[in-house]
Protein backbone atom coordinates (compact mmCIF):
# COMPACT_ATOMS: atom_id res chain seq x y z
CA UNK A 1 0.00 0.00 0.00
CA UNK A 2 1.46 3.31 -1.02
CA UNK A 3 1.91 5.83 1.76
CA UNK A 4 0.64 8.50 -0.65
CA UNK A 5 -2.79 6.92 -1.02
CA UNK A 6 -5.70 9.04 0.10
CA UNK A 7 -8.29 7.80 2.56
CA UNK A 8 -10.78 7.58 -0.33
CA UNK A 9 -8.40 5.37 -2.34
CA UNK A 10 -7.79 3.12 0.64
CA UNK A 11 -11.53 2.76 1.23
CA UNK A 12 -12.02 1.87 -2.43
CA UNK A 13 -9.40 -0.86 -2.01
CA UNK A 14 -11.34 -2.23 0.96
CA UNK A 15 -14.70 -2.17 -0.85
CA UNK A 16 -13.42 -3.46 -4.21
CA UNK A 17 -13.23 -7.21 -3.34
CA UNK A 18 -16.86 -7.07 -2.20
CA UNK A 19 -18.26 -4.78 -4.89
CA UNK A 20 -19.72 -7.65 -7.01
CA UNK A 21 -20.12 -10.21 -4.25
CA UNK A 22 -23.55 -11.66 -3.51
CA UNK A 23 -22.41 -12.42 0.03
CA UNK A 24 -23.03 -9.85 2.74
CA UNK A 25 -19.81 -7.83 3.25
CA UNK A 26 -18.15 -8.13 6.69
CA UNK A 27 -18.68 -4.44 7.51
CA UNK A 28 -20.67 -3.07 10.42
CA UNK A 29 -23.31 -0.43 9.75
CA UNK A 30 -21.15 2.17 11.52
CA UNK A 31 -18.22 1.29 9.23
CA UNK A 32 -20.42 1.59 6.14
CA UNK A 33 -21.64 5.02 7.25
CA UNK A 34 -18.09 6.18 7.96
CA UNK A 35 -16.78 4.87 4.62
CA UNK A 36 -19.56 6.69 2.78
CA UNK A 37 -18.83 10.02 4.45
CA UNK A 38 -15.04 9.67 4.18
CA UNK A 39 -15.26 8.80 0.47
CA UNK A 40 -17.10 12.00 -0.38
CA UNK A 41 -15.39 15.37 -0.55
CA UNK A 42 -18.58 17.11 0.63
CA UNK A 43 -20.96 16.54 3.55
CA UNK A 44 -23.82 14.12 2.84
CA UNK A 45 -27.45 13.72 3.82
CA UNK A 46 -28.77 10.49 5.34
CA UNK A 47 -30.26 9.52 1.99
CA UNK A 48 -26.95 10.10 0.18
CA UNK A 49 -25.14 7.92 2.70
CA UNK A 50 -27.69 5.19 2.14
CA UNK A 51 -27.41 5.45 -1.65
CA UNK A 52 -23.61 5.24 -1.47
CA UNK A 53 -23.89 1.88 0.28
CA UNK A 54 -26.47 0.58 -2.19
CA UNK A 55 -24.49 1.85 -5.17
CA UNK A 56 -21.13 0.47 -4.05
CA UNK A 57 -21.99 -3.08 -3.01
CA UNK A 58 -23.90 -5.58 -5.13
CA UNK A 59 -25.23 -7.43 -2.09
CA UNK A 60 -27.17 -4.36 -0.99
CA UNK A 61 -28.28 -3.65 -4.56
CA UNK A 62 -29.76 -7.16 -4.70
CA UNK A 63 -31.48 -6.62 -1.36
CA UNK A 64 -32.98 -3.40 -2.69
CA UNK A 65 -34.27 -5.07 -5.86
CA UNK A 66 -35.84 -7.89 -3.87
CA UNK A 67 -37.50 -5.39 -1.56
CA UNK A 68 -39.00 -3.44 -4.45
CA UNK A 69 -40.09 -6.67 -6.17
CA UNK A 70 -41.74 -8.10 -3.06
CA UNK A 71 -43.35 -4.86 -1.90
CA UNK A 72 -43.45 -2.45 -4.86
CA UNK A 73 -45.70 0.03 -3.07
CA UNK A 74 -43.47 0.31 -0.04
CA UNK A 75 -40.20 -1.17 -1.25
CA UNK A 76 -37.95 1.64 -0.07
CA UNK A 77 -39.24 1.65 3.48
CA UNK A 78 -39.19 -2.13 3.61
CA UNK A 79 -35.57 -2.22 2.45
CA UNK A 80 -34.47 0.42 4.94
CA UNK A 81 -36.15 -1.54 7.71
CA UNK A 82 -34.58 -4.82 6.62
CA UNK A 83 -31.09 -3.32 6.59
CA UNK A 84 -31.42 -2.12 10.21
CA UNK A 85 -32.41 1.34 9.03
CA UNK A 86 -29.39 3.43 8.10
CA UNK A 87 -31.18 6.62 9.11
CA UNK A 88 -31.57 5.27 12.63
CA UNK A 89 -27.93 4.17 12.59
CA UNK A 90 -26.80 7.63 11.53
CA UNK A 91 -28.79 9.16 14.36
CA UNK A 92 -27.36 6.62 16.81
CA UNK A 93 -23.80 7.35 15.74
CA UNK A 94 -24.41 11.06 16.27
CA UNK A 95 -26.61 10.78 19.35
CA UNK A 96 -23.91 10.83 22.02
CA UNK A 97 -20.54 12.44 22.44
CA UNK A 98 -17.49 10.39 21.61
CA UNK A 99 -18.57 9.19 18.17
CA UNK A 100 -17.06 10.55 14.99
CA UNK A 101 -19.79 12.35 13.08
CA UNK A 102 -20.11 16.10 12.75
CA UNK A 103 -23.62 17.39 12.12
CA UNK A 104 -23.98 20.46 9.93
CA UNK A 105 -26.93 22.64 9.03
CA UNK A 106 -29.44 21.36 6.50
CA UNK A 107 -29.38 17.78 7.77
CA UNK A 108 -25.84 17.20 6.48
CA UNK A 109 -23.20 14.99 8.08
CA UNK A 110 -19.43 14.89 7.80
CA UNK A 111 -16.43 13.05 9.24
CA UNK A 112 -12.80 14.19 9.17
CA UNK A 113 -10.13 12.10 7.45
CA UNK A 114 -8.09 11.47 10.66
CA UNK A 115 -11.21 10.40 12.55
CA UNK A 116 -12.36 8.07 9.77
CA UNK A 117 -8.89 6.51 9.62
CA UNK A 118 -8.98 5.77 13.34
CA UNK A 119 -12.42 4.18 13.14
CA UNK A 120 -11.60 2.20 9.99
CA UNK A 121 -8.02 1.32 10.93
CA UNK A 122 -8.53 -2.44 10.88
CA UNK A 123 -10.31 -2.37 7.53
CA UNK A 124 -7.80 -0.02 5.93
CA UNK A 125 -4.88 -2.18 7.06
CA UNK A 126 -6.45 -5.17 5.33
CA UNK A 127 -6.46 -3.24 2.09
CA UNK A 128 -2.65 -3.02 2.00
CA UNK A 129 0.37 -5.27 1.95
CA UNK A 130 0.32 -7.35 5.14
CA UNK A 131 4.12 -7.58 5.15
CA UNK A 132 4.46 -3.81 5.30
CA UNK A 133 2.03 -3.29 8.14
CA UNK A 134 3.48 -1.44 11.09
CA UNK A 135 3.42 -3.39 14.32
CA UNK A 136 1.07 -2.03 16.95
CA UNK A 137 2.81 -0.33 19.85
CA UNK A 138 2.09 -2.29 23.07
CA UNK A 139 0.49 0.71 24.76
CA UNK A 140 -1.39 -1.30 27.37
CA UNK A 141 1.84 -2.89 28.58
CA UNK A 142 2.99 0.54 29.80
CA UNK A 143 2.74 1.09 33.57
CA UNK A 144 -0.73 2.22 34.62
CA UNK A 145 0.66 5.47 36.10
CA UNK A 146 2.21 6.37 32.74
CA UNK A 147 -0.99 5.57 30.85
CA UNK A 148 -2.94 7.80 33.23
CA UNK A 149 -0.48 10.64 32.60
CA UNK A 150 -0.92 10.19 28.86
CA UNK A 151 -4.70 10.26 29.17
CA UNK A 152 -4.52 13.53 31.10
CA UNK A 153 -2.21 15.04 28.47
CA UNK A 154 -4.55 14.03 25.64
CA UNK A 155 -7.74 15.38 27.20
CA UNK A 156 -6.53 18.42 29.20
CA UNK A 157 -7.79 21.74 27.79
CA UNK A 158 -7.17 25.37 28.89
CA UNK A 159 -7.45 25.92 32.63
CA UNK A 160 -10.18 28.54 32.20
CA UNK A 161 -12.40 25.82 30.77
CA UNK A 162 -14.47 24.88 27.76
CA UNK A 163 -17.54 26.90 26.85
CA UNK A 164 -20.53 25.05 25.41
CA UNK A 165 -22.91 26.92 23.19
CA UNK A 166 -25.88 25.25 21.49
CA UNK A 167 -27.09 26.44 18.12
CA UNK A 168 -30.26 25.27 16.43
CA UNK A 169 -33.24 23.25 17.52
CA UNK A 170 -33.43 22.15 21.13
CA UNK A 171 -33.87 18.47 20.32
CA UNK A 172 -30.82 18.22 18.10
CA UNK A 173 -28.60 21.27 18.66
CA UNK A 174 -25.28 21.88 17.02
CA UNK A 175 -22.82 22.39 19.86
CA UNK A 176 -19.82 24.69 19.70
CA UNK A 177 -17.02 24.06 22.17
CA UNK A 178 -14.71 27.01 22.72
CA UNK A 179 -11.53 27.09 24.81
CA UNK A 180 -11.86 29.84 27.40
CA UNK A 181 -8.77 31.90 28.17
CA UNK A 182 -10.45 34.53 30.33
CA UNK A 183 -13.79 35.02 32.04
CA UNK A 184 -15.00 38.37 33.37
CA UNK A 185 -16.41 37.64 36.80
CA UNK A 186 -18.79 40.53 37.38
CA UNK A 187 -21.02 40.34 34.35
CA UNK A 188 -20.37 36.78 33.34
CA UNK A 189 -19.38 37.72 29.80
CA UNK A 190 -16.85 35.44 28.19
CA UNK A 191 -13.74 36.68 26.42
CA UNK A 192 -11.63 34.48 24.18
CA UNK A 193 -8.11 35.45 23.23
CA UNK A 194 -6.03 34.30 20.28
CA UNK A 195 -4.39 31.01 21.16
CA UNK A 196 -2.31 28.43 19.29
CA UNK A 197 -5.01 25.88 20.17
CA UNK A 198 -7.63 25.26 17.48
CA UNK A 199 -10.44 23.33 19.09
CA UNK A 200 -12.01 20.62 16.96
CA UNK A 201 -15.73 19.73 16.98
CA UNK A 202 -16.67 17.94 20.18
CA UNK A 203 -17.00 14.45 18.63
CA UNK A 204 -13.48 14.85 17.24
CA UNK A 205 -12.10 15.91 20.63
CA UNK A 206 -13.09 12.51 21.97
CA UNK A 207 -12.21 10.58 18.81
CA UNK A 208 -8.99 9.12 20.36
CA UNK A 209 -11.40 6.96 22.37
CA UNK A 210 -12.03 5.04 19.14
CA UNK A 211 -8.54 3.49 19.37
CA UNK A 212 -9.86 0.50 21.29
CA UNK A 213 -12.45 -0.55 23.82
CA UNK A 214 -9.86 -0.71 26.61
CA UNK A 215 -8.54 2.76 25.78
CA UNK A 216 -12.07 4.11 26.01
CA UNK A 217 -12.77 2.29 29.27
CA UNK A 218 -9.66 3.75 30.90
CA UNK A 219 -9.54 7.22 29.38
CA UNK A 220 -13.06 8.55 28.83
CA UNK A 221 -13.62 9.68 32.41
CA UNK A 222 -10.50 11.89 32.35
CA UNK A 223 -12.05 14.42 29.96
CA UNK A 224 -14.87 15.11 32.41
CA UNK A 225 -12.69 14.98 35.54
CA UNK A 226 -9.87 17.34 34.61
CA UNK A 227 -11.69 20.04 32.59
CA UNK A 228 -13.92 22.94 33.63
CA UNK A 229 -17.23 23.30 31.81
CA UNK A 230 -18.66 26.77 31.16
CA UNK A 231 -22.25 27.54 30.13
CA UNK A 232 -23.64 30.97 29.27
CA UNK A 233 -27.26 29.91 29.70
CA UNK A 234 -29.27 27.12 31.27
CA UNK A 235 -30.43 25.65 27.97
CA UNK A 236 -26.80 24.97 27.03
CA UNK A 237 -26.28 23.18 30.34
CA UNK A 238 -29.44 21.17 29.67
CA UNK A 239 -28.20 20.09 26.21
CA UNK A 240 -24.84 19.09 27.68
CA UNK A 241 -26.23 17.01 30.54
CA UNK A 242 -28.74 15.35 28.21
CA UNK A 243 -26.02 14.06 25.90
CA UNK A 244 -23.32 13.09 28.39
CA UNK A 245 -23.57 9.40 29.36
CA UNK A 246 -24.98 8.93 32.85
CA UNK A 247 -21.84 7.29 34.24
CA UNK A 248 -19.69 10.24 33.14
CA UNK A 249 -21.95 12.87 34.69
CA UNK A 250 -20.60 11.63 38.01
CA UNK A 251 -17.05 12.50 36.90
CA UNK A 252 -17.79 16.19 36.27
CA UNK A 253 -15.99 18.24 38.93
CA UNK A 254 -16.27 21.90 37.85
CA UNK A 255 -19.23 23.72 36.32
CA UNK A 256 -19.44 27.46 35.62
CA UNK A 257 -22.94 28.63 34.79
CA UNK A 258 -24.52 32.00 33.96
CA UNK A 259 -28.22 32.37 34.83
CA UNK A 260 -30.24 34.54 32.49
CA UNK A 261 -33.37 36.22 33.87
CA UNK A 262 -35.56 34.95 31.04
CA UNK A 263 -34.66 31.32 31.82
CA UNK A 264 -36.12 31.17 35.32
CA UNK A 265 -38.59 28.45 34.33
CA UNK A 266 -35.68 26.05 33.69
CA UNK A 267 -34.14 26.58 37.13
CA UNK A 268 -35.96 23.93 39.21
CA UNK A 269 -35.22 21.02 36.86
CA UNK A 270 -31.59 21.91 36.24
CA UNK A 271 -30.87 22.68 39.89
CA UNK A 272 -32.15 19.19 40.66
CA UNK A 273 -29.76 17.72 38.08
CA UNK A 274 -26.86 19.58 39.70
CA UNK A 275 -27.67 17.99 43.07
CA UNK A 276 -27.26 14.58 41.41
CA UNK A 277 -23.72 15.22 40.14
CA UNK A 278 -21.91 13.21 42.79
CA UNK A 279 -18.43 14.31 41.75
CA UNK A 280 -19.12 18.06 41.56
CA UNK A 281 -16.48 19.89 43.63
CA UNK A 282 -16.39 23.43 42.20
CA UNK A 283 -19.33 25.59 41.16
CA UNK A 284 -19.31 29.12 39.74
CA UNK A 285 -22.69 30.87 39.71
CA UNK A 286 -23.05 34.07 37.69
CA UNK A 287 -26.17 36.19 38.12
CA UNK A 288 -26.48 39.90 37.48
CA UNK A 289 -28.59 40.46 40.58
CA UNK A 290 -29.40 44.04 39.68
CA UNK A 291 -30.68 43.15 36.22
CA UNK A 292 -32.59 40.20 37.64
CA UNK A 293 -34.54 42.33 40.09
CA UNK A 294 -35.11 45.18 37.62
CA UNK A 295 -36.49 43.00 34.83
CA UNK A 296 -40.12 42.95 35.88
CA UNK A 297 -43.14 42.36 33.65
CA UNK A 298 -46.77 41.78 34.46
CA UNK A 299 -46.18 38.02 34.56
CA UNK A 300 -43.00 38.15 36.66
CA UNK A 301 -43.83 40.60 39.46
CA UNK A 302 -43.41 37.86 42.05
CA UNK A 303 -39.74 37.52 41.03
CA UNK A 304 -38.72 41.08 41.87
CA UNK A 305 -36.40 39.67 44.52
CA UNK A 306 -33.69 37.23 43.46
CA UNK A 307 -34.59 35.17 46.53
CA UNK A 308 -37.84 34.29 44.75
CA UNK A 309 -35.94 32.55 41.97
CA UNK A 310 -37.76 29.30 41.07
CA UNK A 311 -35.91 26.25 42.42
CA UNK A 312 -33.73 28.23 44.82
CA UNK A 313 -34.41 25.78 47.65
CA UNK A 314 -33.19 22.92 45.44
CA UNK A 315 -30.01 24.81 44.54
CA UNK A 316 -29.34 25.26 48.25
CA UNK A 317 -29.45 21.48 48.74
CA UNK A 318 -26.19 20.93 46.85
CA UNK A 319 -23.59 19.58 49.26
CA UNK A 320 -19.99 18.45 49.20
CA UNK A 321 -18.54 21.39 47.27
CA UNK A 322 -14.96 22.39 47.99
CA UNK A 323 -15.40 25.76 46.31
CA UNK A 324 -18.49 27.74 45.35
CA UNK A 325 -18.13 31.24 43.95
CA UNK A 326 -21.02 33.64 43.43
CA UNK A 327 -20.42 36.35 40.80
CA UNK A 328 -22.63 39.44 40.90
CA UNK A 329 -25.12 37.99 43.39
CA UNK A 330 -24.12 38.72 47.03
CA UNK A 331 -27.66 38.06 48.27
CA UNK A 332 -27.54 34.43 47.14
CA UNK A 333 -23.98 34.06 48.39
CA UNK A 334 -25.02 35.06 51.92
CA UNK A 335 -28.05 32.81 51.73
CA UNK A 336 -26.58 29.61 50.25
CA UNK A 337 -22.79 29.43 50.32
CA UNK A 338 -22.22 28.04 53.83
CA UNK A 339 -24.71 25.21 53.32
CA UNK A 340 -23.32 24.26 49.90
CA UNK A 341 -19.83 23.84 51.39
CA UNK A 342 -21.09 21.37 53.97
CA UNK A 343 -20.09 17.72 53.39
CA UNK A 344 -22.50 15.38 51.70
CA UNK A 345 -24.60 13.36 54.12
CA UNK A 346 -23.20 9.84 54.54
CA UNK A 347 -25.66 7.11 53.62
CA UNK A 348 -26.18 4.37 56.14
CA UNK A 349 -24.02 1.34 55.42
CA UNK A 350 -21.73 3.24 53.05
CA UNK A 351 -18.11 2.33 53.66
CA UNK A 352 -15.27 4.77 53.24
CA UNK A 353 -13.31 4.25 50.05
CA UNK A 354 -9.54 4.07 50.08
CA UNK A 355 -7.21 5.62 47.55
CA UNK A 356 -5.25 2.95 45.68
CA UNK A 357 -2.04 3.45 43.80
CA UNK A 358 -1.88 2.59 40.11
CA UNK A 359 -0.48 -0.87 39.60
CA UNK A 360 0.11 -3.38 36.82
CA UNK A 361 -1.13 -6.94 36.70
CA UNK A 362 -4.86 -6.32 36.64
CA UNK A 363 -5.09 -3.81 39.50
CA UNK A 364 -7.03 -0.59 39.06
CA UNK A 365 -5.04 2.56 38.41
CA UNK A 366 -6.24 5.40 40.61
CA UNK A 367 -5.26 8.98 41.12
CA UNK A 368 -6.93 11.70 43.12
CA UNK A 369 -8.14 15.13 42.02
CA UNK A 370 -10.20 17.54 44.03
CA UNK A 371 -10.71 15.10 46.88
CA UNK A 372 -12.17 12.46 44.56
CA UNK A 373 -10.62 9.22 43.41
CA UNK A 374 -10.54 8.51 39.69
CA UNK A 375 -9.73 5.09 38.31
CA UNK A 376 -8.52 3.61 35.09
CA UNK A 377 -9.07 -0.10 34.68
CA UNK A 378 -5.93 -1.91 33.67
From TrEMBL:
Residues 369-378 have a biased composition (Basic residues). Residues 138-294 form the DUF7730 domain. This is DUF7730 domain-containing protein. Coiled coil: none annotated. Signal peptide: none annotated. It comes from Oleoguttula mirabilis. It comes from the Eukaryota. Residues 340-378 are annotated as: Disordered.
Amino acid sequence: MSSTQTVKERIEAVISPWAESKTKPPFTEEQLVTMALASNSKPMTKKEVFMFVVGSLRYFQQQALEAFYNEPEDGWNHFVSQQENFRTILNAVYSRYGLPLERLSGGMYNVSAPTSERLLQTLLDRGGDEKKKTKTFPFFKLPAELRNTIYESVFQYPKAGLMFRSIGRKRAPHVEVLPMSQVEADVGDEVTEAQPLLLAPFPEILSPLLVSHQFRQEAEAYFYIINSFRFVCLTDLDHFLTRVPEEHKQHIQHIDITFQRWESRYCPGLFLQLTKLGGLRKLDIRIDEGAWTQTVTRSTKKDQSVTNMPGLTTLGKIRGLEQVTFHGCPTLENLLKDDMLKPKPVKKGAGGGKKRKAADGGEAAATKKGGRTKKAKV
